[in-house]
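TODO from last week: model dCTP deaminase.
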Amino acid sequence: MILTGPEITAAAHDGRIRISPFNAEQVNPNSYNVRLGPTLLTYTEPIIDAHRPNPTKPVTIDDRGHVLQPEELYLGHTLEEIGSDSFVPLLFGRSSVGRLGLFVEITAPIGDIGFHGQWTLMLSPVRPLRVYPGMKIGQIMFFVSLGVIDPYRGKYQDAAGPQPSRYWRELHKADLP
């Protein structure tokens, strides 16, 4: 079951969902609009290697916006910190942003129960596209879970700003302290 807008609002007020800052104008019939934060990361090497950390370069989006280029992966983030210890969150791009040719979060839309923080967004434009900080970029929905909850305690907990992949840590878990 998916939460309706009024239930998202009620859950945000009673603590079952954390959305900070919360704005009632961003509540939809069955989702909550999230906004683009002011920082983007891009990988700086021509080849991204899944077996090691990859260097990134931060870009700050100012009020004039920033033009995203095709064939480039941008890691953005939600302005809002979002999480729930009760519901399963799913984040998708907004259809109006998709109609501009921007793919948002197409490979990893599901969040874990117990994750709290800003969500990293994978942004990929079809054509050059200017984006702005604070623009409504996606929408998050909350689903009722069934069964015993084992909350998320992973490597991205309490994320602030865009987070590059830490997949390499899984591969080298035995080598890490």
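Done. The first strand starts at residue 17 and ends at 20.
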